[in-house]
Amino acid sequence: MTPVCVVTGSSGGIGSAIAERFVRDGYLVEAGDVETGCDVTSERHVQALFDRAAHRGDVTAVVLAHGVAARGAIDETPTAEWERVLAVNATGSFLCARAAVRIMRQGSIVFLASQAGRKGAAGWGAYAASKFAVIGLMESLAQEQAPRGIRANAICPGSIETSMLRTTADDPDRLRDAIPIGRFGKPAEVAALAAFLCSDEAAYMSGASLVIDGAELS
After folding, report:
1. What is the pTM of this model?
2. Which residue of the set 22, 127, 132, 184 is catalytic?
3. Using CA of residue 212, residue 110, residue 20, residue 118, what is the dihedral sign?
């Protein structure tokens, strides 16, 4: 039976690359994105997404690539903006993870966290808080679901060449020059890491947060 992979945030640069990679790897991909009518902050939408996936076959891979970014000093961040970022990035990940483990028999769940989920930064308070929450959620889920054969890991991208990067970076050239490897990452490179984490080669990996940032964080 062909395995099924659920990918959220599938219309974004990284999410689209992940969906394409899993199709090439032989999965049936059930894609969910706000542009296709799936709002990850809605329990009803999330349940419908995972119900559709379960009807297609055995869901063995889930990649939660949805997310929104927001910039601003903490003392200048409106409460509504804080709530929006936490709702999509943290609550959305919780709703999807909960729905996933209710239908999965075994397999792998990959969360797209962020470099900002490992180290906060000035001007990124709401975003960093939401991604720290994602990592905490993943680590708890990994321990809870390990006895069932469900693994959970997180990918923490740095500066990846996407529309989100172009709209949030004040000076992309200066940002790129600060990366030791000398360039931005590619969505396909993040997708390759997601594919590895869902493969049998990563069968002993669970609860890990893997940074992919060209040595920027270190």
Report:
1. 0.96
2. 127
3. negative
